[in-house]
Automatic annotation (TrEMBL):
Belongs to the NADH:flavin oxidoreductase/NADH oxidase family. GO terms for molecular function: FMN binding; oxidoreductase activity. The lineage of its organism: Eukaryota, Viridiplantae, Streptophyta, Embryophyta, Tracheophyta. Residues 2-325 form the NADH:flavin oxidoreductase/NADH oxidase N-terminal domain. InterPro entries: Aldolase_TIM, OxRdtase_FMN_N, Oye-like. SUPFAM superfamilies: FMN-linked oxidoreductases. GO terms for biological process: jasmonic acid biosynthetic process; oxylipin biosynthetic process. Its cofactor is FMN. It comes from the Eukaryota. Residues 98-117 have a biased composition (Polar residues). This is NADH:flavin oxidoreductase/NADH oxidase N-terminal domain-containing protein. Keywords: Fatty acid biosynthesis, Fatty acid metabolism, Flavoprotein, FMN, Lipid biosynthesis, Lipid metabolism, NADP, Oxidoreductase, Oxylipin biosynthesis. Residues 98-130 are annotated as: Disordered.
């Protein structure tokens, strides 16, 4: 992957775990991530706020203050000590928040339409406030927040950053036409709706180098009332624009799995984007060992990211190598705050039954 020498294709997907008390990463995160690190394995850290207006869930980390940067350092060091490659996912939730914002302000978005639905397995957010539509002249400030956060992430020791353009958060709220109802140069045409995303990419790539920048996109997902009427056109446009910036990787989420003859099937709709993208391609969403091997063999993707399986199996690459049994994940502890339970206490192969 660019200048990074990966030894295998099993990527840890970004996973919000709500254990960064007061938005500050904690020492237990060093244990958690180093458990999952392998020599030459890529880990993508949980979504990390770029500013004090970017947060929407309890105890999710940030990377905009000195204290946060210092707190990340030993966590990144612990991953590097095991030879892991570690990227920080840069996040702004936009309207997926409430009025516990600085000065009690409303969350910001591309729109003033409120989110009405929730993430399917998300028990952690009760209600989203009505957002405030960003003024055109306020947008450069948000782009700047991403730039500074990227610089901070590099200062904390991360090898690079992944811009979170997926799952219904701020960047997705600009890109997708179910949400973006703007009439300025950030709304309307595909080009206009993608403008904010690409300004963020440009700023971040300028700041830390395109060879350390990835982007995550979920064109086909309808998360938090955020969907597009022509997802493939959106995704292809983005991928071609990302090529112009020469970024390192594109990390794309499959459409939701569909039930076919009593079994869940991954739709495998990313091929046109994989073909169009010039950097490293990462596919995610519902993969297991067999299906991961299959898509790599077919050249459908370079790398495969695993979310829930990696959460529950700290030694996932080793289990895949041996074709060993997997621990099952416990949904009830995905977003709880305990520093151990459901976090660092999933057994390793030699300790499991
Ligand atoms: C507990 C949990 C937290 C997640 N947090 C994030 C996140 O911070 N950023 C992100 O882009 N996706 C997040 N996701 C989505 C995952 O990265 C992944 O795309 C999703 O789980 C589907 O992959 P899987 O079938 O391998 O689990 C999260 C998913 C789960 C289950």
């Amino acid at each position: 992957m660019g200048k990074f020498d990966l030894s295998h294709r099993v990527v840890m997907a970004p996973l919000t775990r709500c254990r960064s008390y007061g938005s500050v990463p904690q020492p237990h995160a060093a244990v958690y991530y180093s458990q999952r690190a392998t020599d030459g394995g890529l880990l993508i850290a949980e979504a990390t706020g770029v500013s004090d207006t970017a947060q929407g869930y309890p105890d999710t980390p940030g990377v905009w203050t000195r204290e946060q940067v210092e707190a990340w350092k030993p966590i990144v060091d612990a991953v590097h000590a095991k030879g892991g490659v570690f990227f920080c996912q840069l996040w702004h939730v936009g309207r997926v928040s409430d009025t516990s914002q600085p000065n009690g302000q409303h969350p910001i978005s591309s729109t003033d339409k409120q989110v009405l639905s929730q993430m399917p397995d998300d028990a952690s957010v009760e209600e989203h406030s009505r957002p405030r539509r960003l003024l055109t002249e306020e947008i450069p400030r948000i782009v700047e927040d991403f730039r500074l956060a990227a610089r901070n992430a590099i200062e904390a020791g991360f090898d690079g950053v992944e811009i979170h353009g997926a799952n219904g958060y701020l960047i997705d709220q600009f890109m997708k036409d179910s949400v973006n109802d703007r009439t300025d140069e950030y709304g309307g045409s595909l080009e206009n709706r993608c403008r904010f995303a690409l300004e963020v990419v440009e700023a971040v790539a300028d700041e830390i180098g395109a060879d350390r920048v990835g982007m995550r996109l979920s064109p086909f997902m309808d998360c938090l009332d955020c969907w597009d009427s022509d997802p493939e056109a959106l995704a292809l446009y983005m991928v071609r624009e990302l090529n112009k910036h020469g970024i390192l990787y594109c990390h794309m989420i499959e459409p939701r799995m569909a039930m076919v003859s009593g079994r869940y099937h991954i739709p495998h709709r990313l091929l046109p984007m994989r073909k169009a993208f010039k950097g490293t391609f990462i596919a995610a969403g519902g993969y297991d060992r067999d299906e991961g091997n299959e898509v790599v063999d077919e050249g459908y993707t370079d790398l495969v990211a695993f979310g829930r399986l990696f959460l529950a199996n700290p030694d996932l690459p080793k289990r895949f190598e041996l074709n060993a049994a997997l621990n099952e994940y416990d949904r009830n502890t995905f977003y709880t705050s305990d520093p151990v339970v459901g976090y660092t206490d999933y057994p390793f192969l030699e300790n499991s039954a």
